[in-house]
């Protein structure tokens, strides 16, 4: 029973993330696929220089003023 609840929670999280991506892409006028590519390229580029916590990366866009914000947690080499 517990695995059923956790899989529902993951599914809801994925759906929420997809909806956020869609809303953000509409705000800045690019497709969800383009937003995903932008996110992946940004992560790949930053990872060349520092170790990051990929699971906790948060990318957002505000409407007024229009700002693209990337919150990329950095991990120490010891982790």
Strand-helix topology:
Elements: H1 2-28, H2 32-47, E1 58-62, E2 67-71
Antiparallel strand pairs: 1-2
Helix pairs in contact: 1-2
Helix content: 40-55%
The coarse silhouette is: globular
Give the number of helices: 2
Main beta sheet: 2 strands, antiparallel
Low-pLDDT residue spans: 1-5
Distance between the termini: 33 Å
- Strand residues, percent: 5-15%
SSE order = HHEE
Strand-pairing-aware structural class: alpha+beta
Largest sheet strand order: 1-2
Overall structural domain count: 1
Mean pLDDT: 75
The count of DSSP E runs of length 2 or more, i.e. the number of strands, is: 2
| Structural Rg | 15 Å
- In terms of quaternary structure, the protein is single chain
Describe the structure.
The chain has a two-stranded antiparallel ribbon. The chain has two helices and two strands; from the N terminus they run H-H-E-E. With 79 residues, it is α+β, with helices and mostly antiparallel strands. It has one domain. The protein is globular. 54% of the residues lie in helices and 13% in strands.
């Amino acid at each position: 029973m517990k695995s059923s609840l956790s899989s529902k929670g993951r599914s809801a999280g994925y759906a929420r993330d997809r909806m956020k991506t869609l809303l953000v892409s509409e705000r800045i006028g690019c497709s969800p696929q383009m937003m995903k590519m932008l996110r992946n390229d940004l992560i790949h580029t930053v990872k060349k220089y520092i170790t990051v916590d990929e699971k906790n990366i948060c990318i957002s866009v505000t409407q007024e003023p229009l700002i693209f914000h990337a919150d990329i947690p950095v991990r120490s080499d010891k982790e």
